[in-house]
Amino acid sequence: MNYKTLLESLETILKTGKFSDVIFRVGIEEEEFHGHKLILSMNSMYWKRMFYGASWKEVSGKKIAEIYVPNISPEIFQIILTYVYTHKINMDSFEQAIAVLEAADFLLISDLKEECSQIFSNSLNQENCFSLLSISLTYNIDSLKKKIFKFIEFEKDIFLKNDALLGLSPLVVQTVLHLENLLVPEIQLFRVFLFWWINFSEKSDLKLNQFIESFQFNIMNVNELKEVQRSNIVSEFLIKKLEEDFLNDSKKKLWENKSRRTSKIIPMEEIKVLVLAADDRQSFRNDVFESVKSQGITEAKLIDARTELPTLEEMMEYQVIFTYSRFSQYQNPELLGNLLSEYVEKGGNLVICCRNSLRTDDSYYIKGKILTNDTLPLTTGTNITFSPGKLAQKNLDHPLLQNVKTFDGGSGSYRVKVSVTQNSKCVAFWNDNLPMIAYKRKFPHFGMIVALNLFPVSDAIGTTCWRRNTDGNIIISNAVYFAVNAFYLSQDDF
Description:
CATH topology of the largest domain: Rossmann fold
Number of strands: 14
Shape: globular
CATH superfamily of the largest domain: Class I glutamine amidotransferase (GATase) domain
CATH architecture of the largest domain: 3-Layer(aba) Sandwich
Distance between the termini: 42 Å
Number of helices: 18
């Protein structure tokens, strides 16, 4: 008997009550439902324990367990029994899903809780996110909770109104205030909390400090701190100490309108980058190295990858690796591809460039797992285009193109005929519609990979290469910066 036939048979005995050895009397009216101890026990630890102490009655010569269920409505109980026997779930409303979840939690049916969680996840929006967070906390549904956290962290508009938290429980408010990656400016988060605190009627059982300690006052500016002080709920000592810290901070201009997420951005001067260049011309390698550093990176190392490869341990000392090749083979292409794959899986970030790194019709490209585990944002290609080209279509608002006005690839404009891989995002194209800049993070715990389908050497060294009077150095430097800070810069669901 196959699985489908088995479920159909179970549905039949549920409808007919055939071979039942349990009678449920459900709701206030004690509506009668029939069930089977073996099937019910396999799906619910609650029922499994209950049947050991159930009362019995004699029906047609056999013992039947009789169970009273006054706290669940017949409508909801029917949905639960149908799911237990057939794994089919049919709910008509959001409210019904909440009732099923409550019953599934009471009956210890974890699979059904997850089904309800999926329904809630699919309906998540700005209007219901906080009520769903309350549900996820009440019923301890981690998968739903994580999705809501990520939603709230990205949807800064839900905090635009000061009454955003009004009516929520202290547990939900405290949970929201503890989120580490909110995009909303900290002062607005404080305003929303203050409105909730003033209007919450049961303060006697609450300790204000439990909430105040959640705020990151150190990312507010002086005027914002004064606004906090005027609220009279934060100690004057703390405000004065923060003001002194602010005035003594050489980076205080960076504090303007900071959110928790943007406050975690690693500035250019603190990024550590390793450049692996398989290029037989030192002048070319140096030109690319200078472009990588051009926007403020100071901690960088250049390795001639034709003769030397770092170990994984050495790679992990850097937040991002930038690599390209030009008519020169990496010392060990297979080993490098495996190392880079493991580096990314451990959270390291990668920027990969053509001319030859993405091209597989010669011996100069990276091999190994980095090409075979669906990690790269662009496919590899077997043809390279040598013809004048420029940046055409682009997403001007994307961090990868910040301050990029023009890009001219020069008379060569070397680019590979590639396409964007599944679940990757492309933010810029050449004027012949070939992808120019794309990125991908395969799993949330993986590092970010940015692919630049352009040759990174400029016409300061190579006469057919990208024009220095355009923004190639900014594109290269942005790629490094974005790879490291993507989670804090992008609205993508990583």
